[in-house]
Amino acid sequence: MKETTEFYEVVELGGGPAPDYKPNIDICGCPAVDIIHDLSKGIPLPDKCCMKLFSRDFMEHFMFNDFMGLLKECRRVLKVGGSIEFITINMDDALINHKVYNEHVHHCVVGEWNDERPELRHKSWWTPSLIEYVLRKEGWRDIDVSEYRRDADHWKEPKMTIRAIK
Q1: 2, 34, 88, 124: least surrounded by Cβ within 10 Å?
Q2: What is the average per-residue pLDDT within 76-92?
Q3: Beta strand pairing call for 159-165 and 141-147
């Protein structure tokens, strides 16, 4: 895609029915979705059109190679100095803090067992060291992986916030 005058301060990827930001790009066709699109096929925005890409509980729904493709797309649509902020399950913490397999670990590992909506299944696990390695390898800078504020979320899974600059 060519550069355009179209500009977004923040775009949410995979916000589903309860996005934090607009526009919200998601595969589901619910009213809160502004652009219905399968993000495994790219981000349907022009080059260098936004400053920040945000997602919560989204990246674990991608196979590893598909997520690598999405990271390349993130770099394409971000302006120089733009950033990503992704919130996802921290599998290091999930497996260390839950010695017994229970519903919380089950949700971390597999997501939803829903044959009608397979996009709700988890397809990859992420640890702080893995995401830092991947982002560094892909040319991101000022990478910060920190514990997510658990009290602010309705899920009890241990999560991490990932931030990086293009």
Answers
A1: 2
A2: 95
A3: antiparallel
What DSSP line would sit under 104-148, residue for residue? HHHHHHHB---TT-GGGB------HHHHHHHHHHTT-EEEEEEE-
Residue 6's CB: how many other CB atoms inside 10 A?
Answer: 11
Per-domain residue ranges of the chain: 8-165
Written as six digits, the tokens of 8 are 């977004």
pLDDT digits (tens, 9 = 90+) for 37-69: 999 999 999 999 999 999 998 998 888 899 999
What rounded mean pLDDT belongs to the chain?
86
Burial (CB < 10 A; 0-12, 13-18, 19+), residue 77, is buried
Q: Which amino acid is at 36?
A: I
**Alpha-carbon dihedral sign for residues 102, 108, 109, 111:** positive
Could you tell me which CATH number the domain at 8-165 has? 3.40.50.150
